[in-house]
Write a structure and sequence with these properties.
Number of domains of chain A: 1
Strand order of the largest sheet of chain A: 3-2-1-4-5-6-7-8
CATH class of chain A: Alpha Beta
Radius of gyration of chain A: 16 Å
Shape of chain A: globular
Distance between the termini of chain A: 36 Å
Largest sheet of chain A: 8 strands, mixed
Oligomer: homodimer
Number of strands of chain A: 9
Helix content of chain A: 25-40%
CATH superfamily of chain A: NAD(P)-binding Rossmann-like Domain
């Protein structure tokens, strides 16, 4: 399994570093291949790099780690996504970060599935702040990653990925449940940034 | 502080029993006052009962514990809500319980505030299954109750109520954040009923 991480922002860089560090085979994709190469070199000689389409071509799982507003353009640059598991980690936030631009009758994940019909979209990691991606940032806590999608094999692959990186993977049902997971991500942003808890909180479903 | 609980379904009965048992002054309201009286008698001689408007009139805090579809009719029967804190505990679920009938650009809580402009609406308790209302049902776990609203005094009153019943009250921001809390309640329903965890799960924000 090779994982392409498209994007080198906080989430993309954090996921690439985490996955490379926990034994996954990683390729960094960026519209600027030189930027991807320079970041890959930082992560170690076993991490590959390329333009977006080149990275996608090499990978089985493609993590779309760009802001929601850049998704359409990124997917246009991605080339053939047939047979790829496309992991949507976005929260489709408004410009002030206090609300969502889509919801209720659709979700970012479903919109992405429409834009990339040949890929198998899985929603995951949207409730994990980038600060909590490094293993040491989690200080021994096993955080939950909620995994939603319509294809069980694709969900299993993403769940294994999350587990290999030290998270608990929680089956969150079909892709339409992104309609609930994205508001959970947004509530997490409120707790972290607007309600004083700081970006080291995460939602967790407890079993009594 | 007197608390009116309107409705004697699972949530209404559970909250009335819990609050009466943890020292709150409770009045049960039901469109059938005889039903309210019979349930109040079951809870103890210190619990009052009446029709909906009668219960509301006696109370400082009114917990609206009816299904979302019955809210409009219930508020019509409630009489004067001026000065009352109106606690919305609903999840505005679809008939198959798998989705929400309102969301994204509004929420049940905001719709209730529109229907009852003279009341001060606070969203709370919508992520707690009725099975987890009894103190013994929580088996020593301190569950979080998310409290959203635009009036700090009203939120404080509801937070104190939640704390008196053994919960941790968590400030969830303005009433518009019900747009996120209601999908969290719906995800909780999915975990509890459709994803095999059973109705003894609850969302919890952990601090790493």
């Amino acid at each position: 399994m090779k994982i392409a991480v498209i994007g080198t922002g906080n989430m993309g860089a954090g996921l690439a570093r985490l996955l490379a560090g926990t034994g996954s085979d990683v390729v960094i994709g960026h519209r600027d291949p030189a930027k991807a190469a320079s970041f890959a070199a930082e992560l170690g000689s076993n991490v590959e790099a390329g333009g977006i389409a080149a990275a996608v071509k090499l990978a089985d799982i493609v993590i779309l780690a760009v802001p929601y507003g850049a998704v359409a353009e990124t997917l246009k640059a991605a080339g053939n996504l047939k047979g790829k598991v496309l992991v949507d980690i976005t929260n489709p936030v408004t410009s002030d970060f206090r609300g969502l631009v889509v919801g209720h009758s659709t979700s970012a994940a479903e919109e992405i599935q429409v834009l990339a019909p040949e890929a198998t979209v899985v929603k995951a990691f949207n409730t994990i702040f980038s600060q909590l991606l490094p293993v040491e940032g989690r200080r021994g806590k096993v955080l939950q990653v909620f995994v939603a999608g319509d294809d069980e094999k694709a969900k299993d692959a993403v769940s294994r990925l999350a587990k290999s990186a030290g998270f608990e993977a929680v089956d969150a049902g079909p892709l339409t449940n992104a309609r609930f997971l994205e508001p959970i991500g947004e509530m997490n942003i409120h707790f972290g940034f607007f309600l004083g808890k700081g970006p080291t909180v995460a939602p967790d479903w407890v079993q009594v």
